[in-house]
Amino acid sequence: MDDSSDMFGTDPADEAAEDRASAAELEAAGQSSMFGAPDPAAVPPAPPPVPAPVAASEPAPAAVAAPAPAPAPASAPAAAQPYRVLARKYRPQTFSALIGQDAMVQTLANAIRRDRLAHAFLMTGVRGVGKTSTARLIAKALNCVGPDGQGGPTIDPCGVCEPCQAIAEGRHIDVIEMDAASHTGVDDVREIIEAVRYAAVSARYKIYIIDEVHMLSRNAFNALLKTLEEPPAHVKFLFATTEVDKLPVTVLSRCQRFDLRRISSALLAEHFARICAEEGVPADPEALAMIAQAAEGSVRDGLSILDQAIAHADLASHAEGGEGRVTPVQVQDMLGLADKSVQRRLLAALLDADAPAVLELVEAQFTLGVEPLALLRSQMELVHRITVAQVSRSGAKAISPEERAAIDEWAGKLAAAQLHRLWQLLLKGFEEVRAAPDPLVAAQMALLRVLHAAELPDPGQLARKIEALAANPAAFAPAAPSADGASGGPSGSAAAPVNWAALVERVEHGSPMLGASLRLGVRVVALMPGHLRYQLVPGLAPLADGDIRKGLDSATGMTWQVERAPAEAEAAPSLEEARAAAEGEARETLRRSPLVAAALAAFPGAELIEDEAASPRGERNWSRSA
User: Fold this and answer.
1) What is catalyzed by this enzyme (predicted)?
2) Are strands 531-536 and 522-528 parallel, antiparallel or unpaired?
């Protein structure tokens, strides 16, 4: 019998080769044990076995090599590979991929470059901003050896060396991650204390990453203090927490702290657009902006919503024959958000006191699946954006031009007191809807209350108005008619039922600079209680309508509407122009008197000089020349 074959006709060398399973076969076995065996229909049937030769003189080595189709199972892992959510698939692997944390990255880069690395780092911030990812990146940066194996700590780890790959896969023996939520006691910390004395096995530093560190007990923190203050040179501690206020001050003082900030909505929308491009999913910018706002600064929350939106778009495309695009309408339906245009129509109905329109819009949104609480919250957000646009004077920040134009219009038309009153009414209604047994009825009643109370003055405004009337009734008295029965001014359009001079006096008491500007540079076209239409004197600095409105509101205690008239409209002269004209006319009348005319004729070159010291008390002594 041939010595090269065993009793079954198999070459021992081939049998040894078969015993060494490939990486693909090991992966397939692991996937099968975790997720079940693949569908038998998807695996091609194995070829029939070749009968073993009977005679020893026919070894047939070619027939023994029949198990050639062995690579076929390699396709099974690809079919059985579980789906990875976007939040895990696009976890940042380099500091350049970590968005919104530029200050922290710059600090770490400088510390690594100057070899000034702390022995303990604390990452804190809200959920989903990259605390654990940052800890893993720091571990990679400290232990990276470069592609050639000769590199040192760097802010840009290569990602291809063995330490980088092992840390990214969570299998590095010298990078220990511990969840403090499930390891809270002294015994867990004692294991760390006993292990830190031993040097790293294969890495440059032994790194302990403790997530949710605030969950450790008080005794566990006390046990860790000495090691945390003076650890061995080869040990680094990386802590991550969302509730930094629960950490003892003694722990905070021993760590270098980094506060990871929330990611802005604009930066999140750009990040989501790049991910959609890599995934090959078309998405509208407005839909991505809505997802970014719903994420509230959290990248993980936003990616989870985006994952859901992509699945929702796929279902809608199959049902409607579309292309699977993520649209704003689908995001609104998925998240139960109110339509932006409906939000604006609802606020317009509230301001116009249109109760039937308010009830109709609320009912329609509730039918579409928008929760009453979300409807109230959308109105609060809209009022807040209008108030911010009014105060900042930099224009509204909106997704669409229509929304920006509407917010700018309301910011210029509504008074600050009215906006604050709307906010308070909506906030009270929001709390009532949240606690009510029937949220829809509570939302309707709350919005109707807002509708009826939107135009009512608040008690403070009423009190100021009463005080103003009691202190100076002349400011609100109608002007005396002229001899021909018409109102004063260049034409009937300048009729002023409010005494403008007395009104300016009241403004000067609260704001001398604004009062002086009104006296010098404002020509009244039309003046009625609560309404001023004016022109500016040419050559003077322009005045903002908002400043004039605020000054009149503060002086009278009532809401004023201020608008600038075109240049061709007829207007009365400003108070200073009227005073100068009256003074010039009085001087000319004085010159024409017989006694003064005779004195000037007797003394050529004489001048009329006013005795300023004898001017009545309270008048302004302007410089004049004869």
Assistant:
1) DNA(n) + a 2'-deoxyribonucleoside 5'-triphosphate = DNA(n+1) + diphosphate
2) antiparallel
Helix (H, G, I), strand (E, B) or coil at 570: coil
CA separation for the pair 577, 571 (Å, rounded): 12
Q: How far is CA 339 from CA 335, 364, 379, 402, 613, in A?
A: 11, 11, 11, 13, 70
- Angle in degrees, 0-180, between the axes of helices 500-510 and 512-521, rounded to the nearest 10: 150
Map tokens 């070159």 to a residue.
605
**Left (φ > 0), alpha (ψ -120 to 50) or beta: where does 3 sit?**
alpha
Calpha distance 254→108 (Å, rounded): 17
DSSP 213: G
Per the structure block, which two tokens stand in for 242?
């969302």
pLDDT in tens, 379-397: 998 999 888 888 886 666 6
For residues 568 and 78, what is the distance between their CA atoms, to the nearest angstrom? 79
Distance linking the first and last C-alpha atoms of the chain: 144
Nearest CA to 133 out of 47, 77, 209 is that of 209
Using CA atoms, how far apart are residues 526 and 557, in angstroms rounded to an integer?
A: 20
Query: What is the Cα–Cα distance from 112 to 510, expressed in whole angstroms?
Result: 58
DSSP conformational letter for 283: B
Task: Report phi then psi at 389, rounded to 5.
Answer: -65, -35
pLDDT of 595:
77
pTM given for the model:
0.55
* 369 conformational bin, left if phi > 0, alpha if psi -120 to 50, beta if neither: left
CA distance 584 to 580: 6
CB within 8 Å of 432: residues ≥ 6 apart: 442, 445, 446
**pLDDT above 70: percentage of residues in the chain:** 74
Distance (Å, whole) CA 145 – CA 204: 9
Q: Which of 384, 394, 146, 118 is nearest to 236 (CA)?
A: 118
| Residue 258 pLDDT class (50, 70, 90 cuts) | very high
Q: Interhelix angle for 340-351 vs 439-453, to 10°?
A: 50
Radius of gyration of the chain from Cα atoms? Answer: 40
What are the tokens at 213? 């560190």
CA-based nearest residue to 518, from 533, 528, 529, 508: 508
Quote the CA–CA distance of 352 and 274 in Å, as a whole number.
43
Hey, what are 394's tokens? 């930099």
